[in-house]
Design a protein that fits this description.
This protein has 117 residues and is an alpha+beta fold. The protein starts with a helix and ends in a 13-residue tail after the last strand. It is built from four helices and four strands; from the N terminus they run H-H-E-H-E-E-H-E.
């Protein structure tokens, strides 16, 4: 991976940041929920409000806009189902949504941060 950065100029790379991958269970974040959102509004202001909400809620690890019947899926990591309920209440107070449902991950079968280049 480092060889890729050797071919780029400083202006292309900017700067290098160090990051660590943490085991969520070792830091007390034991539950992963996948939150599926459907909205009846797709106007510019709704999109701004939604973007602000997902960027300000640290429990959201990933957010994706989907093709098909559902509009968005969020990967949310929290310490417990009670903490998820608190997160849910914060989320729905920030943005109006048509429907919100969640699935609790029982087990992670695969997790990788490696991209084949």
């Amino acid at each position: 991976m480092l060889s890729i950065f050797n071919t780029l100029s400083y202006s292309e790379v900017g700067c290098f940041l160090q990051a660590a991958l943490l085991d969520p269970h070792k830091v007390g974040v034991n539950e992963t929920f996948f939150v599926i959102i459907k909205t009846s509004s797709h106007d510019d202001q709704w999109l701004v409000d939604f973007a602000e909400a997902i960027n300000e809620l640290p429990e959201i690890m990933e957010a994706h806009r989907l093709a098909g019947d559902m509009d968005y899926i969020l990967k949310v990591q929290v310490s417990s189902t009670r903490a998820y309920d608190e997160f849910y209440k914060k989320l729905i107070s920030r943005v109006q949504m048509y429907s919100v449902s969640a699935c609790l991950s029982m087990e992670t079968l695969k997790f990788s941060t490696v991209l084949k280049l």
